[in-house]
Amino acid sequence: MSRRPAILIVNLLLCLLLRSEAAAFSVGSRAILRSLGDTEKKVEVDHAVELNATNFDAVLRDTPATYAVVEFFANWCPACRNYKPQYEKVARLFNGPNAAHPGIILMTRVDCALKINTNLCDKFSVGHYPMLLWGSPSKFVAGSWEPNQEKKEIRALEDWQTADGLLTWINKQTSRSYGLDDEKFENEQLPSNISDPGQIARAVYDVEEATTTAFDIILDHKMIKSETRASLIRFLQVLVAHHPSRRCRKGSAKVLVNFDDFSPSHMQSADKQEVVNNNGKGGLGNFPICGKEVPRGYWIFCRGSKNDTRGFSCGLWVLLHSLSVRIDDGESQFTFTAVCDFIHNFFVCEECRQHFYQMCSSVTSPFNKTRDFALWLWSTHNQVNERLMKLEASLKTGDPKFPKIIWPPKQLCSSCYRSHHHGDMKFRQIDWDQDEVFKFLTNYYGNTLVSLYKDREFLRNDGIDGALEDLVVSTNAVVVPVGAALAIALASCAFGALACYWRSQQKNRKYKYQLHSLKNI
């Protein structure tokens, strides 16, 4: 046998082998390429907030941050591209839900190469790239900057060329010691809430966060049912009239007026109870009740030193206390009922829900004054704290930096105590001056809580508050759509009478005008 056929056979076998391996490699290579492609898709999102002329004022006005850094750059600038990783190292510490130190400094960028930003960059005398400015966010709003101006409320940063240099400069301005390696809930520099009563002003952002979180929980758990609609409507009425955040009042009014649109008509029947649509949340799932910026994903005043402490429960308590001191005397019993029913129907912590509702059920006389309801809620909160003190002490589940205490402590309200008390005294053993307590609650959860909004002109009147006053009247009644009115009628005779009256008057032109104006808030 000649060698030629043998060589041909060997070559044929090699070809087949290589072909099969090539096919296998081709499949594998496509998988590898897909894997690489997937990796490339997982690009880390920038932490610095991109601003432009259309959102510059709004973002800086609405931020809870105390300070802001604005980097002016040009997308064609090589130095700017090279500097971006340095800037991002610092921005990740302060921006976003996973920030190590959220709500303190807002790190932003403006691309001056875009024509839309030409006038904006001119206002701040941008003469080179990159250029960094520092100041209070409110000073940037409708503001400007000149390099030689005498009163410099906005300042040009120095030593910003590296992340280390930028953070060192920031630490000098804030008297802090932030580090580039800081992580969430590590190296926390949280101030004590009992050291400065003015800190409660920053809780207004936590109240917005808690309000949005509460409605998200309701929707996620599909808790809006035929028997709970009236309870939710009553709570919305209270929010419309007395929520400390103007944005949440506005959002609550929109939800209330459009309640039938957000909740399908089949909700009125007992056999189909859950609100369902393609996302499982109903129309409310796409509606930002406290504005599109909320939820922010982090807490400020209510931030705990651990991931599972404070936060939502703290924000909810602040909201309830704020409502209790902002209502009028004639609204106290209605608000009490609305709050108790809301917690009973929509608070998903079963043990907490039961304990709170037991305390609600123990009230035998109606509240006739704001003072009575505010002091009842204060007393209830302290009883809850006492119960949790024991549990957290035995289970080691409390926040070591924010242990449960009797509220308010002497550091915040010495006049609330008629006599000296020992640290281990129970709430009911303390001789309280309730007039002073009510005065403290009114100032703390009323005036001081909204002071930051007032300083930033968040409470400017643009006609919205007047429209809301038309919506919620002194009798605690509210003009609502047919479905909501029917639900209220089924819930109580009083609301039934109101609903009937409304239905008889719905053709009134004045009402139609008011409803139209509210739908366009």
Automatic annotation (TrEMBL):
Residues 305-407 form the ERV/ALR sulfhydryl oxidase domain. Keywords: Disulfide bond, FAD, Flavoprotein, Glycoprotein, Membrane, Oxidoreductase, Redox-active center, Secreted, Signal, Transmembrane, Transmembrane helix. GO terms for biological process: protein folding. Residues 25-175 form the Thioredoxin domain. It catalyses: 2 R'C(R)SH + O2 = R'C(R)S-S(R)CR' + H2O2. Its EC number is 1.8.3.2. InterPro entries: ERV/ALR_sulphydryl_oxid_sf, ERV/ALR_sulphydryl_oxidase, Sulfhydryl_oxidase, Thioredoxin-like_sf, Thioredoxin_CS, Thioredoxin_domain. It is an enzyme of class 1 (oxidoreductase). Residues 1-22 form the signal peptide. This is Sulfhydryl oxidase.
